[in-house]
Amino acid sequence: MRLIGLLAVALFALAPPQPGPLTVFAASDLAPAFKQIVPQFEAHTRTRVTLVLGSTGVLAQQIRNGAPADVFFAANDTFINDLAAESLTLGRATLYAQGRIAIVTLTSSTTRIDDLKGLADAQIRRIAIANPQHAPYGLAAKQALDNTGLWRTLEPKLVFGENVQQAVQFVRSGSAQAGIVARSVAGTSDLRWALVDAQLHAPLNQMAVVLARTRQAATALSFIEFVNGTHGRAVMRQFGFLLPGESH
Amino acid sequence: MDVFPVWLSLRVAALATLLTVVAGVPLAWLLARKHFPGRDLLSALLLIPLVLPPTVLGYYLLTLIGSRGTVGRFLARWDIELAFTWRAAVLAAAVGSFPLLIKTTQSGFEGIDRRLEQAAATLGHSEMSIFWTISLPLAWRAILAGTVLAFCRALGEFGITLMVAGNIPGLTQTLPLAIYDHVQANQLDQANMLSFVSIAIVLFLMVALGRIARLRF
Does A10 contact B at CB distance below 8 Å? Predict the structure, then answer.
């Protein structure tokens, strides 16, 4: 009994893991870009950043339930508007990028798909998209299929990833022969991508906002500014995002 | 390899196991030795975490301990946060492993020859004293087996943890969550490495303790 007591004390006495000073919740489409931007920001400001990736809807729900996020980078504006209406945000949201969706296939595959109609090909048995219920890029993919009248035909082939990163992983692993995902996660050499006409879906206006529960609003805001600044924009452009205030 | 998730998982699992043992052993004894109204219902309720989807458990746990939940709001008065902290991961792991400990321990107590306990009673031992000096020492092997199972289950807890503790690297990202993230990010080497570590830990515990204490799982 005394041993168990000692063990308990020892376990509790151990310092609990310390969070990074700034916790950034970011939509999964930002994974590749933020893996470059975050270290740059850390080097510039000597602030440590904890990056948490997930679908915008899942992250918003976590924020609602008290997750310790300082700043939220969403893949569209609806979830941030909802959080703002519930007084969970601080100040105005900033538009930092506009996203595009793309059809992806493996570079090594023989079937070349250049447009949505091509997905009807019998070689394509599974098409990966992010879950449209809570992932904005999944919703955009669904809208594009709806607007081209392909949803009904292609629906039986669809597999939903938890977020856009998982959807692209389904393609990478060969489980799905094609995917409709964020252009930003398709930039690696193992994938071939073809942009989907942006007119086919509601614009993916990616908004960022500082969250009400933060204790470091200034640092949080400076991170949004960094993403929107020279360094951030250079990286974001590289991953195919359209940037606010730039003509295309 | 990032060792933080391994370290966090070991700690979370150890704490969760401690919680389940402290609460579970007396409860298992109660179920094995006492007849009281609602005993069968309680016994079934305790098994629920084993068969219910982790999402259901996670969801209800979150509605309790989240910042809007009854318990969450109550604790907030003292500035204590549970949801999306490592404590929530401990809670999630404890919930998941509770039934394993209860069931194994309960059958351990049930396997004791009742006459030994009755003999102690005729010699004037109190029920408490019988529990400590007769029942517990005789059932130790089952309790240890249950503890090891509970620890291994806690180490592998995924679904409930994801919902109540989130997946925050360096804070609540346990071993299974780190593996999940690595697979999503196509970092398959790291995913393999961490998977290997979890398999190694569990196998080591089962085999080593099985040998030393002659446990049967």
Answer: no
Domain that holds residue B83: 4-213
Residue found under tokens 């400990």: B101
Residue of B15, B62, B86 with shortest CB distance to A17: B86
Task: State pLDDT tens for residues A100-132.
Answer: 999 999 999 988 898 999 999 999 999 999 999
Q: Please report the ipTM that was assigned to this predicted complex.
A: 0.77
Give yes or no: residues A94 and A105 share one domain: no
A67 close contact with B: CB closer than 8 A: yes
> Is A11 close to B14, i.e. CB distance below 8 A?
yes
**Number of structural domains chain A divides into:** 2
Instruction: Mark yes or no for CB contact B166/A19 under 8 Å.
Output: no
Please give the tally of structural domains in chain B: 1
Assess if residue A3 is contained within a domain: no
B87: three-class secondary structure by DSSP = helix
**What confidence score (pLDDT) does residue A245 get?**
84
Is the minimum CB–CB distance between A52 and chain B shorter than 8 Å? Answer: yes
Helices (H), chain A: 2-13, 31-45, 56-64, 78-85, 136-147, 151-154, 164-172, 217-228, 230-238
Domain that residue A138 falls in: 101-200
Q: What is the CATH number of the domain that holds B39?
A: 1.10.3720.10
